[in-house]
Amino acid sequence: MARRVLITGGAGFLGVNAASHLAGQGWRVTLLDNLSRDGARRNLDWLQANHSGQVDFVKEDLRNYPGLEPHVKGQDAVLHLAGQVAVTTSLIDPIADFEINARGTLNLLEAARRHSPEAAFVFASTNKVYGKLPENNRACKETQPIDFHSPYGCSKGAADQYVRDYARCFHMNTVVLRQSCIYGAHQYGTEDQGWVAHFVHSILHDRPLTIYGDGTQVRDLLDARDLSRLYERVIDRIADARGEIFNAGGGPDNQRNLLQVIEAVGRLTEKKPVYSFAEWREGDQAYYVSDITKLEQQLGWRPEISFDQGLRDLVRWAATAA
After folding, report:
1. Radius of gyration over alpha carbons of the chain, in Å?
2. Residue 285, phi then psi, degrees to nearest 5
3. Do 153 and 283 touch, CB atoms closer than 8 A?
4. Virtual CA dihedral for 230, 235, 237, 242, nearest 10 degrees?
C-alpha cells in the first residue's frame, strides 16, 4: 500500500514541488489549501493533470480546527508548508499573521497528536527567527540564538518552537526546517515574497523593480527540487531527525546578493533590468547564509543543483508560464 502524506499549502509553490516529487516516488498525496494565493489554482490544475489518481485535494483553512481532523487521520507524514509568508503583510495585519502561522500550526499539531501521533511531522520554518544577525559574514548555525523580529518572525518563531516542543512533551516525530530563500518552477513571486521569481517575471515582462536597501544584502538560494528531496529524506530518516532543528538552504556555495541575481537574470533573458532603490524594510537581514553542516552530517543531504543551473531552469519555465 502506498504511503500517505498530507501537505498543507499543497497548491502553493513549495507544496506543488513537494507534491510532484513525492507522487513521483509513489506516495498518495492529499493537498490541503485555501487557494488564497495567486497561482494556487493554476498549480493545483497542473498537479492534478500530471499526477492523476495520486493527488487528492481538500479546500480548507488552518484556522478551522474541526476541518483539519478528518484529513490528518491515517497519514504517514504531515508536511506543513502553509502559512502567511510575508514580513510586510504581518506589519499590516499582525493578528491575521498570528492566527495563520501560530494558531494554524498549533491546530495542525493538535490534530496530528490526536489522530496520527506516529506520523512524521515536518514544518517549514524560516531563517527570520534569527532576527537581525551580526554582520560578520559567517554562515548561520542552528546554535545561533533566536531573536524574533517583526510579527512574521514572532508568529513563525512561535510555531517553530511549538513544533519542536511537541517532540519533547508529546513524543511526536516532529522536525523543524529553518528555510532560507527557495526558488524554482511554479513560483510566481511578489515584491514581498519569492523575490527571485519576482525578479525573473518582472524582467521578462519589462516591469521595473524596486530594491529595498542597497541591493548588497546576501542570501543563500536553494532550488525547490533539492528542498523536496530534503523533505523526503527527513521523512525517511525520521528516527534520526525527530525533535531536531535544521537550517535548510543552499549554503555558502549558493550565496548571492540581490544585484548579482538581477544581473544574472538580465543575461539569461537578454533584457536590461530596470530598477530603483528605496529604504530598507523592517526586519531585513543584511547577510544570511545557512550553515548546512548539520543536515549533511546527520542526514547525508546537501544541494545538488547549483544556483546558476537552477536559475536557468527557472527562467526557462517562467518564459513559458502564462
Report:
1. 19
2. -100, 130
3. yes
4. 110
Residue 309: is it exposed, middle or buried by C-beta count within 10 angstroms (0-12/13-18/19+)?
Answer: exposed
**What percent of the chain stands above pLDDT 70?**
100
**Which cell is 18 given?**
513537494
Find the DSSP H helices in the chain.
13-24, 40-50, 65-72, 87-92, 94-98, 104-115, 150-169, 195-204, 224-236, 238-241, 258-269, 293-299, 307-320
What angle, 0 to 180 degrees and rounded to 10, lies between the N-to-C axes of helices 258-269 and 195-204? 40
Confidence band (pLDDT; 50, 70, 90) for 322?
A: low
Predicted TM-score (pTM) of the model is 0.97
pLDDT tens-digit series, residues 280-294: 988 788 999 999 999
Assess contact for 89 and 18: CB atoms under 8 A.
no
DSSP-assigned letters across all residues of 81-110: --S---HHHHHH-HHHHHIIIIIHHHHHHH
- Supply the pLDDT for residue 321: 87
Cα 17 to the center of its chain, rounded Å: 10
Cell of 14: 513549495
Residues 6 or more apart whose Cβ sits within 8 Å of residue 138? 289
Strand partners, 177: 124, 246
Residues 6+ away with beta carbon under 8 Å from 46: 16, 186
Known catalytic residues?
152
Taking residue 23's Cβ as centre, other Cβ atoms within 10 Å add up to 20
Q: What angle do CA 222, 228, 229 make, to 5 degrees?
A: 95
Contacts of 309 (CB under 8 A, 6+ apart): none
> What's the fold here for domain 4-187+221-253+284-305?
Rossmann fold (3.40.50)
**What pLDDT score was predicted for residue 293?**
98
